[in-house]
Design goal:
This protein has 231 residues and is an alpha+beta fold. 23% of the residues lie in helices and 28% in strands. The strands form three sheets. Strands 5, 6, 7, 8, 11, 12, 13, 14 and 15 form a nine-stranded mixed β-sheet that branches. Helix 1 packs across helix 2. The longest helix has 9 residues. It is elongated and about 65 Å long.
Length: 231
């Protein structure tokens, strides 16, 4: 197994992040610093990261969390704010967020130690759909504004891909996008004259919040994991 994949399966980071960790000289294999993420390792290898020995490949797990507003979707926060990992205390498993939700947004976020799955779900080429409910300012949303959102909106980093958008109230929309740009839904809505007041992610691929309460989490079943890996 390649070293970057080994680190991902050991719960250190996603595969892309693991490649950067290796290239930075932070990984030691059998007493030797290794900077090649393609280096082959096997189950008998003694691997450490930043001087901390890994205990081997962890059982791969994934949790869904209903993130509240104010919680940050990072593994650590330098400002001492509550993170998504604080809400999913799992002994022994080194979880990290899959994708991001900004602190002002709420809803469905995944946490996993499966770096390969995380890469599949977040890489743009896989176009995993994510559905949001947005409460908007700026008056009722006009048909022309809906059309612009559906066909693609010009942002400072280029036009967005077409989105599925439906009106669920005079000031509320449901939007499904396949991209993962920073604060994309907020910027799309602002671009058509309707700043977002509240934003909640309700679906991530085949997964839905369902009856999961704010701040609550649950472990995904093997069937749900299989659905995610098949995306």
């Amino acid at each position: 197994m390649r070293l970057a994949k080994y680190l991902a399966h050991a719960g250190v980071a996603s595969r892309r992040a693991a490649e950067a960790i290796v290239a930075a000289g932070r990984v030691n294999v059998d007493g030797e610093v290794v900077v090649d993420p393609a280096r082959d390792v096997d189950a008998s290898a003694r691997v450490s990261v930043d001087g901390r020995a890994l205990s081997g490949l962890e059982p791969r797990v994934c949790y869904v969390l209903n993130k509240p507003v104010g919680v940050v979707s990072t593994a650590h926060d330098t400002h001492g704010r509550t993170t998504v990992l604080d809400l999913v205390p799992v002994d022994g498993a080194r979880l990290y967020p899959v994708g991001r939700l900004d602190a002002d947004s709420s809803g469905l976020i995944l946490l996993s130690n499966d770096g390969e799955l995380a890469n599949r779900l977040t890489h743009p080429r896989h176009e995993v759909p994510k559905t949001y409910r947005a409460l908007l300012a700026g008056g009722a949303v006009a048909d022309e504004e809906l059309r612009r959102l559906r066909e693609g909106v010009e942002l400072e980093d280029g036009p967005t891909a077409p989105a599925r958008v439906r009106r669920v109230g005079a000031h509320e929309l449901e939007l499904t996008i396949h991209e993962g740009r920073n604060r994309q839904v907020r910027r799309m809505c602002a671009a058509v004259g309707h700043p977002v007041l509240e934003l909640r992610r309700e679906r991530f691929g085949p997964l839905a919040l369902g009856g999961l309460g704010e701040g609550e989490h649950r472990r995904l079943s093997e069937r749900e994991l299989a659905l995610l890996r098949a995306l």
